From TrEMBL:
One of its GO terms (biological process) is 'de novo' pyrimidine nucleobase biosynthetic process. One of its GO terms (cellular component) is cytoplasm. CDD domains: ADK. Its EC number is 2.7.4.3. GO terms for molecular function: AMP kinase activity; ATP binding. This is adenylate kinase. Transmembrane segments: none annotated.
Amino acid sequence: MGTVDAANKDVKLSLADKKPTVVFVLGGPGSGKGTQCANIVQQFHYTHLSAGDLLRAEIKSGSENGTMIQNMIKEGKIVPSEVTIKLLEKAMLDSGNDKFLIDGFPRNEENRAAFEAVTKIEPEFVLFFNCPEEEMERRLLSRNQGREDDNIETIRKRFKVFLDSSLPVIEYYRPRGRFK
């Protein structure tokens, strides 16, 4: 009988062995990441993995992780790296593709370092959508997707988290020639 650790090791080896092409897609909430990813998928046949969508699906599953994720999102906090990475790894392996747009992750330096350490994958490049905060707020309030985190108070917390946490990730990749 195998252990959970042995099963996780096999998952990591198979993902690293696939040598997938990974593009991190970053930008503030409402900057157009999802919309542009849909265009890239159509043109270039990438698999679009939205970290936010994977987290919301986990919430809907009713799992213990889902409850923890829901509470963190309500507070505008970043979900622990290991939780999001595990969801991303599973989705990458299940997709059957070897080209991925990872939308909304890494959200901070710790996410970035953990993703590269756990998966042994560095992104091909980082696609960054720079959008004014007023425009992102307008888009989020008008998109009417029924998301509980699309309210003005949570949106403003998400902007602050993005500025404080995600911009250092962008600055990490910029001098490494992986920034678009």
